[in-house]
Amino acid sequence: MEGFHTDDADVVFVMSNSFATKGKAAVLKLRRQGIKAGLLKISLFRPFPSEAVARALVGREKVAVIDQNLSPGMGGITYPEIVAALYGRPNAPKKILSVIGGLGGKDIQEDEFMTVVDALNDGDARGPVYLYDEKDWAQFQSLAKIARAEKGDADS
Where are the domains of the chain? Predict the structure, then answer.
């Protein structure tokens, strides 16, 4: 694990892989805006570093777990591991949000981290939050249409 500006962070993004570089840039930008953001990069998933994760996140106000994968019905695969690591601990974060981004090779933009902060600050927001806009949705629909057409061709 690697912590980046987590010592005094109110908001911590938990990420893995190369997208954590985007997270670091976003943390610096958010800090310039007065938001105490931090990043926890997880490098090893199994065995899951539950105790180290808990030490890094206990005392933080809000946590957003940004996964680049999707487990149907569960959100991202890292989110339940983080929740389990923090379950029942004194001073656990008040809010832990599942965020899905980067599916299908889509890049995560710096401004999308502010969307995540807004979702964390929204008392009614429940995850998972998907980092996709109308353009992304239109592209998905276009690809789905092509896939259906190809399947129809294969069935004839």
Answer: 2-155
**Which of 111, 115, 42, 40 has the alpha carbon at shortest distance from 77?**
42
Global confidence as pTM: 0.86
- Region 2-155: CATH code: 3.40.50.920
Supply the mean pLDDT for the chain.
90
